[in-house]
Amino acid sequence: MRLEEFLEERTTADVSKVLSAVAKSSVRVWEALPIERGVTGGTNPSGDRQAALDLFTNGEFSNSLIATGAVAELASEEEAQPLTGRGALHVAMDPLDGSSNIETNNPLGSIFGIYDSALPCSGERIVASAFVTYGPMVTLTFSTGNGVNRFGLVRKGSNFVFELAAQDLKMPDKPEVYGFGGLRREWIPPVERFVTKLEQLGSKVRYCGTFVGDYNQVLKHGGIFGYPALKGKPRGKLRLLYEAAPMAFITKAAGGYSTDGFVDLLRVEAEELSATTPVYTGSYSITKELERTVSSGSP
Ligand code: AHG
Ligand code: MN
Ligand code: MN
Predict the structure, then answer these.
(1) Ligand 2: distance of its center to the CA of 274 in Å?
(2) Which residue, of 46, 61, 157, 167, has the fewest CB within 10 Å?
(3) How confident is the model at residue 299 (pLDDT cuts 50, 70, 90)?
(4) Is any ligand 1 atom within 6 A of the Cβ of residue 100?
C-alpha cells in the first residue's frame, strides 16, 4: 500500500498533509546527504554547532510544512523563533537528528511532533508523531495514537515512493538491548546501577549516537534507550518538544513507556521551546523499573 492511500484512509486531512510533506521532503534530504557537507560556524538555540545539513534540512522541512496550509506554528530545534502559517496544527521538529554522525556515515534521522496546542506545551497535546530514518533504507515511521506504522522508500520506474513496510509495530516487552548516551561517569548513580544490572541480565548495548538509530533497535528487539540526567546536567541533553515527546508518543502507541525518571514523559510540561529532559523510553516493564529506581532516590 502506498503512503498517500494509507494516510487518506487512516488520518485527518491536516495530519495527512503534514505527513505527506514530511515524506516528500525526506527524499530531497536523502538526495542532499552526499552534497550538504561541512559545518556553518553557527549554533542553534541549544548551543549545538550547526552543520550545513542541519540548515538544509531545516529549510527543506520548513518550506514544505508551512506550504501545506495545515500548520499554524512550526518550531524547529534549529531556530530561536517558530514560523507561523495558516492551519490548525502546531509542529515541533528536529530536522536532522544525529548531526555528529554526518561525517561518519552512520544513521541519521528527522523527528516531528504534531501538537493540537500552541507551543511550548506537554506531550499530552501530541495528535501524531513521525520520524524518518536515513539508514541503509529511508523509512518513515509514524503514529496517530493507535498503532505504529512504517513505510519504506522504494524506486518505482523513475520515481521514489513510500510503500507500507510494517503495520502496528509493537515493542517486545523484554530487555534485549539498551543504549544510554552521555559519559557513564556522569550518569546519576541510580542510572549507573540500573545499567550495571541490565548488563548482568545479559542485555546487549546498542548505541550509535543518533536517537532515531538507537530507538529503532529498541522498537524492534525490546529494551530501553536513555539519555540520562547527568551529575552536571540534571535536565539531560535531549529536547522535550522536538525529540523526547514525539518519540515517547510512538513508544506508547507501540505498547512501551517513557519517563523522565519520575513521571510519564508525555506529561512533562515544556517550560520553553528548547527545554531539555532526561529521556528513558522503551519496553513497558523495564522502563517502569528504571522509573522506580530513579524516583526512589536511593543514593
Ligand atoms: P542532534 O543531532 O539533533 O543534536 O541530536 C543528537 C542527540 C541524539 O540524536 C543522540 O542520542 C545524542 O545527541 C547523542 O549525544 P552524545 O553524542 O552525547 O552521545
Ligand atoms: Mn536530535
Ligand atoms: Mn538536530
Answers:
(1) 12
(2) 157
(3) low
(4) yes
